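G., the chain you wanted modeled:
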Amino acid sequence: MLTDRPPSIRPRFGYRTAMPAADVPFSRTEHGHYDVRRGAAGYAPIIGAFGALSVTAIVVVFTVPASRSAHSGLYLMLATGLLVVAMLGSLLGAIGLAAIGAEKVPTANLAGSVMYIGVPVGVSVAAILGAFEVLAALFLPASTQLFATIVAAGGAFGVIFVAFAIADSVSLGPADEQEHATWSRTKRWLKDRDEANRWSSIVAAVGVMPILVSTILRFAGVSARPTSVAANMLVGIGIGFTIVGTLASLLRSSHRSDHKQIELRKREAFMTTLAVGFYVALLMVFLP
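Predicted structure as tokens:
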């Protein structure tokens, strides 16, 4: 009889032998995902190019004679200092991004590492644009407001660039799909793609808010005239942010002996984006 046949040769028409599919809320294979390692490796040479541009601009500042304006010496000092911040931030940012690109396994630790290394990158973009605004105030006073608007726009892009890591963080974690799904349910934050996309927009909006407020105040005439103290403060804070952000990124991606993966924390997301937004707001207040 047909039912007496061995199980290996029984007909399988209309008979399903597969087990029910496990509940996987997010599949990186089916839905696609952003490989943060390849992205970081691709961004590294682009960010490094800002360093080369900053070096060229510094040489130009040192060789082009300044005007006889009473503030020319202070403006040149501020412009040179901001260019140095841009050069340092771009070089450290390129090194940090290249280090992330060299990672072999897309662990959850890389999300925080990318956000931290975004701080020197964002500060570098804002600083180099700020330096051009200072030079415009010295040589092209009529275009000062235009260049200030460019600083605000570039700073806002830097904040959004850093916030992108939040949406991409859900694809990081254990390599196995089922293990990744189980691990995602235990997370305190960003358990699925929708939540990650929503918080990416929220964090970006919060980070851009200081830039927006400072821009409105500047165009309303509420701003401070740059002084030597303010110039040293802008340069010092910029260098501090770049160094701390780079070190935090390297430490965040370090490999633990217990192989534990630490997902992106909410405070890390807000701290990194607000750091860039706060620095751009300072530039908008104290730039000439």
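Confidence is low (pLDDT under 50) at residues 1-24.

Shout if anything looks off.
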